[in-house]
Amino acid sequence: MTAKKISVTLQVTSEVEARELRDAWEEIVTGKKLVRMEAFEHATEAIMERARGALEVIERAIREHPTTGQAGRLVRFLAAIYNGYDFSFDLTDLRALDTELANACLDYLNYDRLATREVHHHLSGGDQELQRWILDYRVEPRLSLDESQAKAFAKLMEQTHREPNELLREAVNLLLDKYRRKPSGAAP
After folding, report:
1. What is the per-residue pLDDT across 132-171, written as a single tens digit (0 to 9) for each?
2. Closest residue by Cα to residue 188 from 153, 122, 141
3. Are 80 and 88 in contact (CB under 8 A)?
4. What is the largest CA-CA distance in the chain?
5. Which of 83, 56, 55, 64 is nearest to 139 (CA)?
6. Which of 9, 12, 13, 85 is deepest in the core (most CB within 10 A)?
7. Contact predicate 58/74, CB 8 Å
C-alpha cells in the first residue's frame, strides 16, 4: 500500500488559535502530549483569547436585549464572577441561555479560574457599569447570619407571628432602599 499525501488548509482568526492548532496537530502526528511550559503558556493565551470574545458576547447580549430573561441571567452570572460570596449563581440557569451565551459564560468562567484579573476590569464600562446592572436587574446579595443574628431572627418571628420569608423579604427591601438612597461616593 502506498502512502497518499493529503493537503488540508485551515483558516484561523488569531495567532493563539494558530499555535493551538499547530500544537494539536503535533500531538496527533507524534502521539505525544505536549508538556512543555510553552504549551502551558499557549493554553493560557488561548483561554484568555476566548474569554475576551466571550465577555464581548455577554455584554452585547445584555445591552442589545436588556428586557429578556437571558440578560438577567447574564448579569447574575457576572455578579457571581465579580463577588461569589455575596452573589450566588445557579449553574442550571445556563440551561436557559442560548448555546452561544452559555458557551460564552463557560469560556469566561474558565478564564476566571486563573484568578488573573477581576471581571469588572475587563468590562467595557468597568465597575460602574457592573454595579448599575446589578441594581437595574435587582440582583440581590446573599444573606448570611451568624448564630446571634439567627437567634434574634427566630425570636422576632415568634414575637411577630410572621413567616421567615416575609420577614427576610421586608428586611432586604429596607436595606436595599437604604443603600439605593445613599449619595454616590458615600462610605458603605
Report:
1. 898 888 888 876 767 887 788 788 888 888 887 787 788 7
2. 141
3. yes
4. 89
5. 83
6. 12
7. yes
Is 167 contained in some domain? yes
- DSSP annotation of 117 reads S
Reference 65, options 90, 100, 108; nearest CA is: 100
- Which grid coordinates are listed for 57? 458576547
- Cβ count within 10 A of residue 114: 11
- Could you tell me the three cell numbers for 24? 494539536
The dihedral built from the CA positions of residue 106, 76, 74 and 115, taken in this order, carries a sign that is negative
Same domain, 116 and 38: yes
C-alpha cell at 178: 437604604
Global confidence as pTM: 0.58
Q: Has residue 128 been placed in a domain?
A: yes
Reported as a single tens digit per residue, the pLDDT across 26-74 is: 777 787 776 555 555 667 888 888 888 999 999 999 999 999 999 999 9
Q: How many residues does the chain have?
A: 188
Q: Give me the helices (H) in the chain, please.
A: 15-30, 37-64, 69-82, 99-112, 126-136, 147-160, 164-181
